[in-house]
Amino acid sequence: MTTSCVVVTDNDAATKAAFNKQSHLTWLSCAVHDANLAVKQTLQSAALPNEIKVAIEACKEIVRYVKKAQLNSKLLELGKKSLKQECETRFNSLWNMVRSVNDAMAALPEVLPIERRGGLPKLTKPSFTELISILSHFDALTRELSASKVPTLFLKPLWKKELMKLLNEKSKDRSISAAGQKVASMLMDSVESKVQLQTLHFCATILHPQFKYFVQREYGAECHNEAADFLESKMMPDCAQHFQDLLGDGIEDCQRQPNNLLGNSSSEQQIPMSHVNIWDRIQSYGCGSSSSGLSEDFTAFTSHAEELASWMCVPERKLEGKSILNYWREQKHHPILAATALFIHSIPCSSIPSERLFSVSGRITADPRRSSLSADKLSKLCVINSFKKNGGKIE
């Protein structure tokens, strides 16, 4: 395949430029890095409402003191969780910090000495809890888009659109403070500029039976047509050529028995999504017919355009608990499109899973007793660690 390797990284200019120079590589921005940049840009802006700035600084001061004075144990004795310190290299760490302070608010007067309680009144304003509520949606985004067991690439356009709608609603909600409305408006502008959508994201959404018309409805016909053209002229021919190279003349048999080409596995497990407002809104899309509307007989298509057009004529349908990968593995009617969909849905939306693996390898090599580990043995230890986290099962 010409598009044989897709690289997902953060938006570092040097990294992006290096990958874009490689003709055989396709670069995608990490969705979680994008969202984190949007939050960071907003909260570091000079235009941020002063009462929000003051509240954040008060949180940082309280957390620093509690850590330094080793008072987290007293919070635990009072039935509260320990306070979380902000760390710029960790996603949503500021939200985790302000939320931990807010959760421990009732116990802080008992823990802090009198001279350290001056910052507490600054955390009682409605804008502080509104900030926590707004940032919670970015935490939900991080959790959903950094999943490693299920496809996530198709979710980025959905999450961006719904996040923009939610922030727009908050920015006009007169039941919240002016500072809360201002933060929501600033975050909306940051999300629009920082969360990048590329053609492959739209392709993945089109190749999901529940959301295939979402791009056209929410992003317009131009984005939809560009993604469809890319599928027809680039991805499908590449996939067809790839399997032709692998199987030679056997490709025709595989087209008529697509399980030979795509694999036949029913072991895929869908991780339950968290019940967050924004995800519930996304799930409401795609209320079409539950049947595919296709006959059981295989139809031989004369062109990739005809196969794609046939797929687009099928009504949207919910998967009813079935994995998107298993859906395409069992797809008998569109063999080349199914192979293309499996390739695209194997691309992660975020680089977080691989970064977690780097962290595991770092913890292993940090042990001085393992300073002479070979690369092969380190790789095997990382694989074993992953298996253990997944319940000892190969995913």
Strand-helix topology:
Layout lengths: L4 E5 L3 H8 L4 E5 L1 H13 L6 H19 L3 H6 L15 H11 L4 H4 L14 H20 L9 H17 L6 H17 L4 H8 L7 H6 L1 H27 L3 H6 L1 H5 L14 H7 L20 H9 L11 H6 L5 H11 L6 H15 L8 H15 L6
Parallel strand pairs: 1-2
Helix pairs in contact: 2-7, 2-9, 5-7, 7-8, 7-9, 8-9, 8-10, 8-15, 10-12, 12-18, 19-20
Report on the structure:
With 395 residues, the chain is mainly α. Helix 8 (155-171) crosses helix 10, helix 12 (221-247) packs across helix 18 (335-345) and helix 19 crosses helix 20 (375-389). The protein has a two-stranded parallel ribbon. It has helices at residues 13-20, 31-43, 50-68, 72-77, 93-103, 108-111, 126-145, 155-171, 178-194, 199-206, 214-219, 221-247, 251-256, 258-262, 277-283, 304-312, 324-329, 335-345, 352-366, 375-389, and strands spanning 5-9, 25-29. The chain is 58% helix and 3% strand. The chain folds into 3 domains: 32-194, no CATH class; 198-345, no CATH class; 352-365 and 373-389. The two termini are 25 Å apart.
